[in-house]
Write a structure and sequence with these properties.
The protein is of the alpha/beta class. The chain is built from eleven helices and nine strands. The chain folds into two domains: about 10-210, Rossmann fold (3-Layer(aba) Sandwich), CATH 3.40.50.150; about 220-280, Orthogonal Bundle (Helicase, Ruva Protein, domain 3), CATH 1.10.8.100. Helix content is about 35%, strand content about 20%.
């Protein structure tokens, strides 16, 4: 394994600071610095960007982002045991790394970031999906970030890029693909991590579109999609009956057969249905 900077190998960093991964924090450390640099490159040219990283752990991806030229990295880490290792990286890259010790679900990082902003992270498994949904549903679009380069369990990655008609297609696919270009750019086996998780992982790159693909009220669309997929085995006329007594008329007006199930409905059709619901309020 070749070095990407003058800092010690990650196994040595982990041993020095006693950083055994904690299951309760969703930690699985990626120790191959060549891999972390490769993930950083998937985020594109970072030389003019601030990068938000969630859950840096001992700093493998952090070092990849910095060595690949990120203008500045803001790393949010809940586990205080990792701070000395991250401080060592900050000293090696003067003025380019700021570390916040806290819970990513509770912190607003915008005060610490200067646009343009990209987000890159090997997300803790236990909060990854919640963070993604938050980033996909800001009050105003386009969002403050240009792109997301995020590692998930492979199953979650497949759900983000899934097409209608597949078992993986659901609310996450609709939310992601409505406002972003989404694609899987890397796959990683369990053996790449310490400790190895039980499942494979994948890196998803999402680029924010200037505007959503189809017009729809975000709140209405989110509600319609959630109701449809919460009972995905039911026909839509049953799954969505709580929307309105006119739900069958709405479905017909949106070009959707009431006997269809949620996984058969395209993004464009969901947006059309959301417009019908909003118009009949």
């Amino acid at each position: 394994m070749s070095a990407i900077d003058a800092l010690p190998p990650l196994r040595e960093v982990i041993a020095t600071h006693g950083l055994s991964a904690k299951k309760a924090l969703g930690q699985n450390f990626l120790l191959d610095l060549n891999l972390t640099a490769k993930i950083a490159r998937q985020a594109g040219d970072l030389s003019q960007c601030d990068v938000l990283e969630i859950g840096p752990g001992p700093g493998g991806l952090t070092r990849g982002l910095l060595s690949e030229g990120a203008r500045r990295v803001l790393a949010v880490e809940k586990d205080a045991r990792c701070l000395p290792a991250l401080e060592q990286i900050a000293a090696a890259y003067p003025g380019r790394l700021e570390v916040i010790n806290g819970d990513a679900l509770q912190i607003d990082p915008l005060a610490h970031l200067t646009p343009p902003i990209r987000i890159a992270a090997n997300l803790p498994y236990n909060i990854g999906t919640e963070l993604l949904v938050r980033w996909l549903t800001p009050p105003v679009w386009p969002p403050v970030w240009q792109s997301l380069t995020l590692m998930f369990q492979r199953e979650v990655a497949d759900r983000i890029v899934a097409a209608p008609g597949s078992k993986a297609y659901g609310r996450l696919a609709v939310l992601a693909q409505w406002r972003c270009e989404a694609r899987i750019v890397m796959s990683l086996p369990p053996a790449a991590f310490t400790p190895p998780p039980k499942v494979a992982s994948a890196v998803v790159h999402l680029t924010a579109l200037p505007a959503p693909r189809f017009p729809a009220d975000p709140g209405v669309l989110s509600r319609v999609v959630a109701m449809a997929f919460n009972q995905r085995r039911k026909m839509l006329r049953a799954a969505l009956k709580g929307l309105s007594p006119e739900v069958e008329d709405m479905l017909h007006a949106a070009g959707i057969a009431p006997t269809e199930r949620a996984e058969q409905v395209s993004l464009e059709q969901f947006c059309a249905l959301a417009r019908e619901v909003a118009a009949r309020r």
